[in-house]
Amino acid sequence: MAFWWKKSPKTPSDYVKHLNEQLDKLESASAGSDLRKKAQDECGKYIAGTKHFLLKETDPVPTQEALDELYYWIYQSDLFFTLLHSFPNLDFEARKDVAMIYCICLSRSKDNKFPTVDYLLTKPKFVSMLLKTSEVCITRPGGSDIFLTASGMILETIKQEQLCRLIIRDQQIWKFFDFTRLGSFEISSSSLQVLTELFTTHPKLVSVEFFSNEDNMNQFIDRINKLMAHGNYVTKRQSVKLLGTLIFNRVNKNLMTTYINNSDNVKLVMILLSDRSKNLQLESFNIFKVVVANPRKSKPVLDVLVKNRDKLLNFLEQFGTDNKDSTFLDEKEFIVEQIEALPRIVPASGEYTLGTSPQKNMVL
Predict the structure, then answer these.
(1) How many structural domains is the chain composed of?
(2) Where is coiled-coil annotated (predicted)?
(3) If I label 233, which of 66, 84, 104, 156 is the partner at 20 to 30 A Cα–Cα?
């Protein structure tokens, strides 16, 4: 790309100005027209050139003063907004370069500060626009590729705690739960990754800003339960793993207490505990052991455990017999002891036992 910059000397402000002009032409041109294709090609050239300039891959190598000036005009012209607005209409390589430019700018530090983060904090609508872009892209041709690139930008944004706060407050995050069930495998996996990083990267922030709100917590439990109950294998396993990670973190004590004291939640975990997949069984066991170890079980939860006492003991006798991990074996022994200590009742006729069929896992 070095030759492209030599066509005519340009200042950093010119680079941004010309890119914005081409983006305007891209949006005004009719879909499928020659003008649209030409503008798309020009946008790709200017975007790639900007990326190489930021990476100091041009000849001559830009000075630090030139780089600072380019960053200044990127912020001054609100280039991120324009790029994001045109994002679905750019070609594949240009979208990748936009994501690269965004990541480079996000990680830029100067005088112990992150100028791009500070800039975006003054433009909270950008984060909302970034989340919206993911939804808009799903229904477009090549939507999976566009969604994956946009999701990568969201993941980079989540790494910045102050920007993560903006995301966690945005109602659009709930749509990523839907994307995991309605989209392609790529979209589903990427959505789960976004949700996992969003809720685990900054635990204290999420605890204070999100789970302290009862409506948020209840809606999260409802959404994660649906993924655990009705998702495909990957969705189920990753959802159970995410829930377990959150429950085990002490900062999420309210979430843990609320979840494990609800009998419907416990029944779902018991269903997953008897899934045919050993990996899913093990992830579910990590949640189930918290339920059993809880010294202040709610009466509905205690009733479920008592009704299933013998069935659980029979199941646990065969559970994880090939697992030699000492920690797992100690935990399993403790859980068995706790269940053995529960009151024993004579089961009524027709009650189901733990087995391979999810519908026959427990007494409801």
Answers:
(1) 1
(2) none
(3) 156
